[in-house]
What we know:
Elements: H1 18-21, H2 47-59, E1 71-76, E2 81-87, E3 101-102, H3 107-118, H4 125-131, H5 149-153, E4 169-170, H6 174-183, H7 191-202, E5 209-210, E6 219-221, H8 223-234, E7 249-250, E8 264-266, E9 276-277, E10 282-283, E11 293-294, E12 302-305, E13 312-316, H9 324-341
Parallel strand pairs: 4-8
Antiparallel strand pairs: 1-2, 1-13, 3-6, 5-6, 7-9, 9-10, 10-11, 11-12, 12-13
Helix pairs in contact: 2-9, 3-7
Amino acid sequence: MTTPLPSSRARLLALAGLAALVQACGGGGGGDGSTPTPPPPAGSPTDAQRIAAATSTAASTTNACSSIKPFYWEIGDKTALKASASVQAGATPIVTASSSMNIASASKWLYASYVVQKRNGTLTAADVKYLTFKSGYTNFSTCLQGQTVGGCAAYQSNGVHDTVTDGKFFYDGGHMQNHASLVMNLGPYVTGTLAAEIQTQLGTDVGLSYSQPQLAGGAVSTPQDYAVFLRKLLNGQLRMASLLGTNAVCTNPSATATPACTTALSSPLPATLNWHYSLGHWVEDDAASDGSFSSAGAFGFYPWINKDKTLYGIVARLDPQAGSGADSAACGILVRKAWVSGTAQ
């Protein structure tokens, strides 16, 4: 892929309207000494009901999922996939679990998890500042495919530090690019060696490559490969598991829901949302949301883990239109609610 990616500031554009779509949604041992799995609480939906509700919601022609076809979705837990489907749109190419795509800002979750793993779970104050987008590197434009990580950091205005934005939340790819180059010593890495380095911490079973050496938005993966990463988080195999939602900062100076954030300068969120931002991922924690962790990408890739860290999910598609990440998130949130409630949305 040789076309430069759009600025990180464009990612998650057009999230307006998303909040309206989101609502807050011991037996004795056996004869062999084992402890059987307890039954679900009385009144809880069965897996069959959950699958039917999620499938119906994803295939709907009247909700937020109707406008993003074709796409692939899945939901699983720490052990396995629980339900999935490819939702088709006429004769357009089908999207499947093995479809390779640029995941844009979903790259952020991968990079932050790499850093946490590399630091053995103990981040420096500088790491936290960079990974929660308060470093002052807020002039990112793009990377070119053949550049090194450091070459991209020095390209155009990417490496320009702004004292005015330093210490304030400002959603921008420059934070991670300069962190990788200046702090993590990844400056000499090119796309191929960068992917291999990230896998040294996340595992070679987390399949990924890079279309350009941009840590905040250059990763290429498939739903099934990204799902391996999410299951590793649920299983506690990656140190990020215990840091989900930590060091979270407020993000929206224009939020209509109180309190608006006075320590943020630039956010992709509309006034209707008041989410926080943790280490390379969003915390969907305002009054209209359910507390899930997520990292939607501009081209329509929306991965999430629920607040209880018992479920993961993905809505995957490749659409370069502005707002594609927000549209996928709107659908994914409904599918998640359908699964939890056992009722189609």
